[in-house]
Amino acid sequence: MKNIVMGIIFVYLLTFSAQAQEKGPFFPSRATTETGWLKKSRGKVLNSDSFSDPETCKKCHEDQYNQWAGSMHSNAWIDPLFQAAYQMASKDTDGVTDKFCAGCHSPIGVVSGEIPPADGSKLSEIGKKGIQCGFCHTLSGTTGIGNGAYVSSPGGGWVGGPFSDAVENSAHENEFSELFTKSELCGACHSVTNPLNNMPIERTYEEWRDSPYNTGDPKTTVHCQHCHMSQRPGMPGTGAVPIVLNPGKAATMGEVPTRKHIFTHYFVGGNAAVPGLLGSDTHSKLAVERLQNSARVEIEAPEKVSPGELAVVKVTVFNSGAGHKLPTGFPEGRQIWLDVTATDASGDTIYSSGALDKGNNVDPEAKIYRVEFVDKDGKHTLKLWFATTIVNDNRILPKGHDETRYFLQIPKDVKGPITFQAKLRYQSAAQDVANFLLGPNAPKIPAIDMEDEKVTINVGS
Ligand code: HEC
Ligand code: HEC
Ligand code: HEC
Ligand code: HEC
Ligand code: HEC
After folding, report:
1. CA angle, 193 as apex, 190 and 195 as ends, to 5°?
2. Which of 196, 359, 408, 434 is the most exposed place for a label (fewest CB within 10 A)?
3. Best mutation site among 56, 133, 231, 260 for ligand 1, i.e. most ligand atoms within 8 A of its Cβ?
4. Who lines ligand 1 at CB under 6 A?
């Protein structure tokens, strides 16, 4: 009952408070096609057959295909965490969120009119393949940042891409498009706002826009593509390591030149859990490599302490690798935390903070970097569609840092020396979030060690 009432309020507000966002053909998603309401593109009536299946691109672009397959872009619709939240939102709001969420998670489903219904019963096979070759490479522009503000223009036998001198081929016409070389392409989706009350849900694009990586000078600006589309095994492509170019050929067929850099298509973030669940070991491993090149941890401790003393140890976490906050995106689910322990020479733990309990949940007293939302009644909520206010956001800014002080009561009978260890750990979803979405059969979300530092503290009198 309560959900129905909330749903009606949501529908009402969405209908009558359109000030939040201009209404387009797929409202509340901001997606458009070239001719908007008519759902036509390049003169043709648009449906899901207007998009080429990734398998057809694979014939000539094997590397791009193999890298993309198994990525979170390819999983965006089938992702079990997304599906659980999506079905819940659809029920709670009587379907109002159907086009909104899918505008980013199954864009072909939305622009071709196969969504709603949210259960996917009308969705074509191609619509289930998430964010794919034929969708991205037929984007003709954007109408702004966020909530799916892209212009989809398939069906003309063309592809847009970064080359102004692409070699002619039998499959498609090539069109140079500057958009592909810039963060604004990604910004169409990597910024999520509740269309009802304007509450920011995800701000990855804006976090990057306001960061030192966006210098304003085209020669030195580091775009999303530079980090995320240079990664491959052994080359994590983060701000903490040099970005290594990937020379090669863009197509396996045709007389094509060797180019200085072929952009990789793994599209890896921090999510090691879902690619692992859905069977892509490669993407899971790449996520771990990325996370292990994202941050730096420094410990400042006294060289020597006395038994019975209250010692202070300072731990600083630097966001050295991410071009946005650490962590970013789905920030009410993702978490990064400090797991610290102090152990004396006889192996006794004299201090601990941030351990995982038997249920795989982090010690709530720990330093946890994340975002927390409340609903209109001030109650903590994981339902982002009901969230109205952010009550906590302590994530670390790009190239920024954060300090935590730990107070250690040194036992009188301590056996020196003491080892102080600080691990920085990551979960793409807190276990309670996964349990909330997936119920009793939720898998155990892996905790990934991003950093692991130790110092020795001597004991004197
Ligand atoms: C999320 C959007 C997106 C998806 C999905 C995507 N691409 Fe790309 N692709 C890009 C961008 C962006 C670039 C250019 C990056 C730059 O120049 O900064 C690119 C570049 C390319 C290029 C030029 C050569 C290169 O790799 O640098 C080819 C070919 C290509 N993509 C093919 C594909 C194929 C095939 C698929 C599906 C298997 C695919 N793309 C999926 C965004 C995408
Ligand atoms: C018959 C082979 C073939 C097929 C099939 C094919 N391509 Fe291409 N594609 C090429 C060749 C050849 C180039 C030129 C590469 C170069 O100049 O280095 C190219 C270039 C591209 C570029 C770069 C264009 C630019 O101007 O920057 C993109 C993007 C691209 N293809 C995407 C796709 C997508 C998406 C599909 C599937 C819908 C696809 N291709 C199917 C052969 C093919
Ligand atoms: C059509 C909307 C759309 C566009 C355009 C788009 N993305 Fe995404 N991207 C998504 C969605 C949705 C997900 C999350 C899927 C999920 O987790 O279920 C995602 C996931 C990702 C991830 C993996 C996140 C993780 O936690 O591991 C990375 C990295 C990423 N995108 C980078 C990019 C970059 C770089 C670009 C631009 C070249 C881009 N995306 C363009 C919608 C988009
Ligand atoms: C300087 C390199 C760099 C740039 C630039 C950059 N990223 Fe990232 N990105 C990272 C690193 C490192 C991580 C892994 C740490 C993390 O999860 O935040 C990451 C993680 C992500 C994730 C997964 C979020 C999570 O917390 O699991 C997404 C999505 C993403 N980036 C998208 C983008 C988009 C979109 C842009 C451009 C607006 C961008 N990134 C720019 C380095 C970069
Ligand atoms: C404007 C585009 C956009 C819209 C609209 C959107 N999402 Fe997402 N969603 C994303 C992106 C991008 C990510 C990946 C974030 C990251 O990793 O940083 C994501 C991630 C998620 C995740 C985490 C998945 C995982 O495997 O960890 C869930 C759950 C999710 N979205 C649910 C929803 C629901 C439910 C809605 C509608 C109420 C929605 N999203 C609307 C872009 C969008």
Report:
1. 135
2. 359
3. 133
4. 54, 57, 61, 64-65, 68, 73, 131-133, 136-137, 161-162, 180-181, 185, 225, 229, 250, 262-263, 265
Neighbouring C-beta atoms of residue 203, cutoff 10 Å: 23
CA distances 238 to 115, 123, 369, 408, Å, are 36, 36, 20, 35
What is the distance between the alpha carbons of residues 75 and 86, in angstroms, rounded to a whole number? 14
Q: How many CA atoms, within 13 angstroms, populate the side-chain half-sphere of residue 329?
A: 15
8 A C-beta contact, residue 249 and residue 257: yes
How many residues appear in the chain?
A: 461
CA 220/CA 216 separation, integer angstroms: 8
Give the tokens for residue 381.
């909520």
Q: Is the CB of residue 97 below 6 angstroms from any atom belonging to ligand 5?
A: yes
Residue 403, both tokens? 């300090």
Give me the amino acid identity at 437. Answer: L
The Cα 318–Cα 327 span in angstroms is 12
What is the per-residue pLDDT across 111-132, written as a single tens digit (0 to 9) for each? 999 999 999 999 999 999 999 9
Q: Is residue 20 predicted with pLDDT exceeding 80?
A: no
Contact 195, 251 (CB under 8 A): no
Q: Find all residues with CB under 8 Å of 31, minimum gap 6, and list them.
A: 24, 25, 103, 107, 110, 111, 148, 149, 150, 152
CA 99/CA 81 separation, integer angstroms: 18
pLDDT band at 24 (very low <50, low <70, confident <90, very high): confident
For residue 118 the two structure tokens come to 């949210």
Residue 82 in contact with ligand 5 by CB distance below 6 A: yes
Place of tokens 């070239």: 34
pLDDT (0 to 100) of residue 37: 41
Task: Tell me the per-residue pLDDT of 244-286, one tens digit each, with 9 for 90 and over.
Answer: 999 999 999 878 999 999 999 999 999 999 999 999 999 999 9
Using CB atoms within 10 A of its CB, is residue 370 exposed (0-12), middle (13-18) or buried (19+)?
Answer: buried
Q: Which amino acid is at 252?
A: T
**Integer CA distances (angstroms), 375 to 16, 82, 100, 387, 400, in order:** 20, 20, 19, 4, 30
Kindly list the distances between the CA atom of residue 207 and the CA atoms of 213, 322, 425, in Å, as whole numbers in the listed order.
10, 10, 22
d(CA 239, CA 294): 7
Q: Which of 224, 243, 318 to mutate to test the pocket of ligand 4 (most atoms within 8 A of CB)?
A: 224
Q: Whose CA is nearest to atom 31 of ligand 4?
A: 269
CB neighbourhood size of 260 (10 A): 9
Instruction: Collect all residues with Cβ–Cβ distance below 8 Å to 170 and sequence separation of at least 6.
Output: none
